[in-house]
């Protein structure tokens, strides 16, 4: 059974899974969120460095 992608469990049974988001779309969303998280981290660290340098 392939379990890549986003699935939702069907209420009629444990083994029935419905695909909500395909494998490629799931991977692209993961990459976009990872990139955005990295950018937020980098901007925050750079801003903190310059803030401490000027006021610290």
Quick structural overview:
With 56 residues, the chain is an alpha+beta fold. 59% of the residues lie in helices and 16% in strands. The chain has one domain (7-55).
What keyword list fits this structure?
1 helix; alpha+beta; single chain; 56 residues
Structure commentary:
The chain has one helix and two strands. It is an alpha+beta fold and 56 residues long. The relative contact order is 0.11. A two-stranded antiparallel ribbon has the order 1-2. It has one domain. The protein has one helix at 23-55; strands spanning 6-9, 17-21. The mean pLDDT is 90.
Let me know the largest β-sheet.
2 strands, antiparallel
Q: Estimate the helix proportion, in percent.
A: 55-70%
Structural class call reads alpha+beta
Oligomer: single chain
Q: Which segments are poorly predicted (pLDDT under 50) over 5 or more consecutive residues?
A: none
User: Termini, distance in Å?
Assistant: 56 Å
Q: Please provide the ordered H/E string of secondary-structure elements.
A: EEH
Q: How many strand segments? A: 2
Radius of gyration: 20 Å
Give the overall form. Answer: rod-shaped
The fraction of residues in strands falls at 15-25%
| Average predicted confidence as pLDDT | 90
